[in-house]
């Protein structure tokens, strides 16, 4: 396999030499480094590389190049190498400069570039390399060039093979899927010996699971909760941003903590390909990466995790809360945080539901993105997650159509994302529109769109459909004693009924439910902001409230 290229362009020879030194010293063993002195030369070489089928991982350009903004060259890179990371080089003195900040925001918002980095200083400039390494990791993950990848081999795209991919997606676990009849699938199966049952999972450490259940996968990671009813200071149900935040703060403050999830880390946040407005990440961070970091934090502080376990019941018993699991396990908590989040609402169109995993996906399905190369795909949804998915898929697809029920994108999407979506040359936005039908023979082939204003319907060709609509809280398993609003979101604090407050014998705490010692945080809570940062904040606040509850307990 040819090495992927790192390309740096600068018409100042001294500045280019500094970049060439750092790239060559650190990355030349694994990448081919090209440093070029003019935008015309760079564009010609990039055109030739694209024609030859070479792979460019990263392109660096300065603020000004041949008297023009360097972002002009970076914008051209998108056309030639959609997955390449396009990075603007800025001088140290420009960091914090108002005009430079405005230029960067404008260029990112209009899709001309992806990131920025301060020029390297005296070697070794580890801050420079930390940034470059993060850009290369983003590129490698998009290209499935990361270690510790799980392979899934199935007979068809849909059915249990799709369910396993969805599980791994929720785990933020890098994975690849191959049909058993494909050359790649036959090669993987050949390397692990004859297998009688499909689908097959080949784990990064070489273990092979034939048609595994979720519990089988849980056992491989040693996260099975037994029936003994072990007691914890804190049991968290849900491992999205709110649950992970509660886990980090709870474990770090000495609480014996167990986190249970029917999938794995991240929740819906793992479907966000780039969160650019999260505090402390000026260059953006993917939801999967944020979840992985939070998981490691909680793990190091001593939190225990139980993945692939569904909680089936909750009951208050003599000052503790008992949780029964679908695996037969039992967990007992002096305090409980419900952070089960919400999932995307089902479309409810039978012909499309039948094609789930075969062109129809709930969520961004980042691992499916390379399969849409050159195709027409549709994303349904009007919130930030849908905008991020459309931008991510646009790096691969010929055209992405964003279908929004509302009259404008601004009704549910952050301003910076609206600008990016509107500026993307291969994204079409159809507001006031909904998907009402569709179908295909083994794979999605067409959709039927309806104009909500006049009812007119249109049949369109479509290779893939990504659904990111509404929010359905994971609360059907809760007993009636846990009060919920008509949509199923959990009532907390002042929203809890007066009758429940009398049963508690006191006003409930801010995030406390109608059951004493049971709190709710994040998207599952009635009135929550439905943002990652808000969920993280609520998770941390829940721990502060739990300390008050535990201190007052007899």
UniProtKB/TrEMBL annotation:
The FAD/NAD(P)-binding domain, residue ranges: 232-539
Catalytic activity: [thioredoxin]-dithiol + NADP(+) = [thioredoxin]-disulfide + NADPH + H(+)
Database matches in InterPro entries: CheY-like_superfamily (IPR011006), FAD/NAD-bd_sf (IPR036188), FAD/NAD-binding_dom (IPR023753), Ferredoxin-NADP_redctase_2 (IPR050097)
GO molecular function, one term: thioredoxin-disulfide reductase (NADPH) activity
Range of residues in the leader sequence: none
Protein keywords: Flavoprotein, Oxidoreductase
Listed name of the protein: FAD-binding protein
């Amino acid at each position: 396999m040819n090495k992927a290229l790192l390309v740096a362009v600068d018409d100042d020879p001294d500045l280019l030499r500094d970049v060439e030194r750092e790239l060559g010293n650190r990355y030349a063993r694994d990448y081919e480094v090209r440093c070029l002195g003019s935008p015309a030369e760079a564009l010609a070489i990039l055109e030739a590389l694209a024609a030859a089928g070479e792979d460019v991982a990263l392109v660096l350009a300065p603020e000004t190049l041949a008297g023009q903004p360097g972002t002009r060259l970076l914008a051209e890179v998108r056309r030639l190498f959609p997955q390449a990371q396009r990075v603007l080089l800025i001088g140290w003195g420009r960091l914090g400069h108002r005009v430079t900040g405005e230029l960067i925001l404008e260029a990112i918002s209009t899709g001309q570039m992806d990131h920025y980095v301060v020029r390297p200083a005296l070697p070794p400039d580890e801050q420079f390399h930390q940034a470059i390494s993060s850009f290369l990791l983003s590129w490698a993950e998009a290209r499935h060039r990361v270690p510790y990848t799980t392979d899934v081999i199935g007979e068809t795209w849909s059915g249990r093979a799709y369910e396993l991919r969805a599980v791994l997606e929720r785990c933020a676990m890098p994975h690849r899927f191959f049909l058993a009849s494909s050359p790649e699938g036959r090669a993987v199966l050949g390397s692990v010996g004859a297998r009688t049952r499909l689908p097959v999972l080949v784990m990064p450490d070489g273990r092979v699971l034939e048609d595994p259940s979720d519990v089988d996968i849980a056992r491989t990671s040693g996260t099975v909760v037994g029936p003994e009813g072990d007691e914890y200071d804190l049991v968290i149900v849900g491992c999205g941003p709110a649950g992970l935040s509660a886990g980090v703060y709870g474990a770090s403050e000495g609480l014996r903590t167990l986190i249970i999830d029917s999938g794995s880390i991240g929740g819906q946040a793992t479907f966000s390909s780039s969160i650019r407005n999260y505090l402390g990440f000026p260059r953006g961070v993917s939801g999967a990466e944020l979840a992985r970091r939070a998981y490691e934090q909680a793990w190091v502080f001593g939190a225990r995790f139980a993945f692939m376990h569904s909680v089936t019941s909750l009951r208050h018993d003599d000052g503790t809360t008992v949780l029964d699991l679908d695996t037969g396990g039992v967990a007992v908590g002096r305090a409980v945080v419900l952070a089960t989040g919400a999932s995307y609402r089902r479309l409810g169109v039978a012909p499309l539901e039948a094609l789930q995993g075969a062109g129809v996906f709930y969520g961004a399905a980042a691992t499916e993105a390379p399969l849409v190369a050159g195709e027409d795909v549709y994303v349904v949804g009007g919130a930030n997650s849908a905008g991020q998915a459309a931008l991510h898929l646009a790096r691969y697809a010929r055209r992405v159509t964003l279908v929004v029920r509302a009259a404008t994108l601004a009704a549910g999407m952050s301003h910076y994302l609206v600008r990016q979506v509107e500026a993307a040359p291969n994204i079409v936005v159809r507001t006031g529109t909904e998907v009402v039908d569709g179908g295909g023979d083994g794979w999605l082939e067409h959709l039927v769109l309806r104009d909500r204003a006049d009812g007119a319907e249109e049949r369109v060709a479509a290779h893939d459909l990504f659904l990111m609509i509404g929010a359905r809280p994971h609360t059907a398993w809760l007993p009636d004693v846990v009060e919920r609003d008509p949509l199923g979101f959990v009532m907390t604090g002042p929203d809890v009924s007066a009758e429940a407050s009398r049963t508690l014998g006191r006003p409930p705490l801010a995030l406390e439910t109608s059951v004493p010692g049971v709190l709710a945080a994040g998207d599952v809570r009635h009135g929550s902001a439905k943002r990652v940062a808000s969920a993280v904040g609520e998770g941390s606040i829940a721990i502060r409230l739990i300390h008050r509850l535990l201190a007052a307990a007899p």
